[in-house]
Amino acid sequence: MSAMDHIEALKAKHASLEHAIGEEAARPHPNDDAICSLKKRKLQIKDEITRLRSRDVRH
Fold first, then answer.
1. Whole-angstrom distance, CA of residue 39 vs CA of residue 52
2. Whole-number Cα distances in Å, 38 to 26, 35, 49, 55
3. What are the domain boundaries of the chain?
4. How far apart are the C-alpha atoms of 6 and 20, rounded to whole Å?
5. pLDDT tens-digit readout, 6-31
6. Pick from 57, 49, 53, 55: nearest CA to 15
7. pTM over 0.85
């Protein structure tokens, strides 16, 4: 898998997490712990995308 393919896969996961956060937040009694966990994972993916892009630019 190329770096660009990996980035695209991570972007899809990031979008999926964004959707899951929105669904959880829209529930009558959202689970704040679940939302926090989803946001943390989303941030980790964003950081990985940034890291891969910066590594790709240097090469």
1. 20
2. 14, 5, 17, 26
3. 3-58
4. 21
5. 999 999 999 999 999 999 999 999 99
6. 49
7. yes
